[in-house]
């Protein structure tokens, strides 16, 4: 109880701090107006790409990502080139808060909103969706549907075959809004995307490459919890050291810090991270199955035998990443290979061990067929919202994407005879020798916030990853890891079990916090003195679920599943 009260107090203090912080920076973030509908060269709105002479203010709620913005957002050469073309530019505000959801909640509650906002949202079941929906229902956002049809790229959102099902039905074109669109889901792949155009991040367990080699272990052959346990025992017996010569711990936290990740006990991951699945034709919560106790028993064994770091579920991200840089863990319970994380893998090479069987015995790696992440909304207080949509449309065009991805042709990149975009030596020198300045040379993140959609880098620019053709040796490791072990993928599309919770508002308020607390119950059970105590904790949690209305929710999901099994996807990611 003391822990809960302390956490609540800290949360309230943080919320109060953010209210003060946001209020302090709100004086220049009110809805701005176009200063002129005529460009300096005489172009009028709609002529030669000109939209309006207008400087926008935006705010991002993406958990500390403001560090990726250029120092001068409106005066850097790329922004000036875009303004020359469109008449518009944007200055993004970011407090650098560690919790984008809390910051978003405070901003909507206080009405402290600029011209446009962007929040994290990779699927409709995310907690951000509930906060955004509340804002839409209370009239805080502009209906964007009238403006999408007058665009060249964004009109793809109106194509029934363009959007993934969850984005279309649960995020953008929700039936409750009767055709009105309050959110634009970003990072949507282009319609012509094929398997060869996909990046695979290989999210799951990873093992230090040198340890796998020393033990003559093929990570792609580790399939069961027994395989993982026996491997952990061999590693412990091997007395391996980190890069500084210090003894290692066998299994560590996520690369980003402590959190329960079901990849650690994938054989028992009923629901594959969604908490719900179908057993013998019946929709159940994982806590109502034997898989929950099996997961707890497995993790308890790892902890008691010193195979898993006791801080794996609460370590901060800075410490965790530093530990992986140093090779302090033989196995990561969860990491992935992303282009911006290559440096770590160059210091200490890890190999993906993500082909373990799920509870159904499947070894294919699940991925969403068409993903989406981040969401853009325009407050109802913003003047001339159609201009922002036109600005977004330009940034999402191939010409716009080329600018914020590659810079200015002839200065920052050239196009070879294969149609590949190749950075100039000037840019490559920054990327190689002063990577912290890349954001001031090529403002990728700045432009992607409003422009990254209808994405197919392979077809547009001749490479899956920016600069892969310019720096083939650097990305050789990335593609080696992406294809390691000849992985097989299984694609899914639709609503996850979590996405439907907003559809049952009579129990949502009571059930959601109980569902969210499952990971905390697991951690408490992991550290219980024995399985008897852990079982009692789980029984208590089952009663909480029942009291909060889980049976009503399961019936709702069951009816959906019975009517159309493809409408409920019992898979989302390796988190609870």
TrEMBL record:
Residues 1-23 form the signal peptide. The lineage of its organism: Bacteria, Bacillati, Bacillota, Bacilli, Bacillales. Keywords: Signal. InterPro entries: Bact_solute-bd_prot1, SBP. SUPFAM superfamilies: Periplasmic binding protein-like II (SSF53850). This is Extracellular solute-binding protein. It holds the Pfam family SBP_bac_1.
């Amino acid at each position: 109880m003391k822990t809960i009260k302390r956490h609540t107090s800290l949360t309230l203090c943080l919320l109060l701090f953010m209210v003060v912080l946001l209020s302090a920076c709100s004086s220049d973030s009110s809805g701005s107006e176009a200063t002129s509908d005529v460009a300096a060269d005489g172009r009028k709105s709609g002529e030669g790409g000109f939209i309006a002479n207008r400087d926008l203010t935006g705010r991002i709620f993406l958990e500390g990502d403001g560090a990726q913005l250029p120092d001068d957002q409106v005066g850097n050469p790329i922004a000036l080139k875009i303004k020359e073309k469109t008449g518009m530019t944007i200055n993004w505000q970011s407090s650098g808060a560690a919790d984008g959801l809390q910051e978003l909640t405070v901003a909507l509650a206080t009405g402290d909103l600029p011209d446009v906002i962007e929040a994290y949202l990779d699927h409709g079941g995310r907690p951000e969706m509930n906060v955004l929906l509340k804002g839409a229902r209370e009239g805080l956002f502009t209906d964007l549907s009238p403006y999408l049809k007058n665009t060249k790229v964004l009109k793809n959102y109106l194509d029934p075959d363009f959007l993934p099902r969850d984005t279309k039905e649960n995020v953008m074109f929700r039936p409750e809004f009767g055709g009105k669109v309050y959110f634009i889901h970003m990072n949507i792949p282009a319609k012509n995307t094929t398997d060869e155009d996909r990046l695979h991040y290989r999210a799951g367990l990873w093992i230090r490459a040198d340890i796998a080699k020393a033990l003559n272990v093929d990570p792609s052959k580790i399939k069961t919890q027994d395989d993982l346990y026996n491997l952990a025992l061999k590693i412990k017996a091997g007395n391996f050291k980190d890069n500084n010569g210090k003894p290692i711990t066998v299994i560590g936290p996520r690369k980003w810090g402590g959190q329960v990740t079901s990849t650690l006990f994938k054989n028992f991951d009923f629901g594959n991270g969604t908490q719900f699945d179908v057993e013998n034709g019946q929709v159940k919560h994982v806590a109502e199955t034997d898989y929950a106790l099996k997961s707890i028993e497995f993790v308890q064994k790892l902890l008691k035998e010193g195979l898993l770091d006791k801080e794996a579920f609460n370590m901060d991200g800075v410490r965790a990443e530093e530990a992986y840089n140093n090779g302090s863990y033989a196995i990561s319970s969860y990491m992935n290979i992303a282009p911006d994380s290559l440096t770590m893998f160059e210091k200490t090479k890890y190999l993906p061990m993500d082909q373990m069987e799920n509870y159904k015995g499947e070894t294919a790696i699940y991925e969403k067929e068409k993903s989406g992440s981040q969401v853009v909304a325009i407050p109802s207080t913003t003047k001339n919202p159609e201009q922002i949509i036109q600005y977004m449309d330009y940034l999402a065009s191939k010409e716009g994407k080329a600018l914020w991805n590659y810079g200015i042709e002839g200065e920052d990149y050239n196009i070879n005879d294969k149609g590949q975009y190749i950075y100039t030596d000037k840019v490559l020198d920054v990327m190689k020798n002063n990577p912290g300045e890349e954001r001031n040379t090529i403002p990728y993140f700045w432009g992607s916030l409003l422009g990254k959609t209808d994405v197919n880098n392979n077809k547009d620019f001749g490479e899956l990853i920016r600069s892969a053709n310019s720096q083939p040796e650097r990305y050789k490791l990335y593609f080696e890891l992406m294809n390691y072990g000849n992985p097989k993928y299984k694609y899914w599309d639709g609503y996850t079990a979590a996405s439907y919770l907003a559809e049952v508002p009579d129990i949502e308020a009571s059930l959601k916090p109980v569902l969210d607390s499952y990971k905390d119950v697991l951690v408490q059970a992991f550290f219980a003195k024995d399985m008897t105590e852990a079982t009692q904790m789980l029984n208590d949690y089952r009663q909480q679920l029942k009291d909060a209305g889980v049976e009503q929710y399961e019936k709702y999901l069951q009816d959906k599943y019975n009517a159309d099994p493809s409408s409920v996807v019992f898979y989302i990611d390796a988190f609870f």
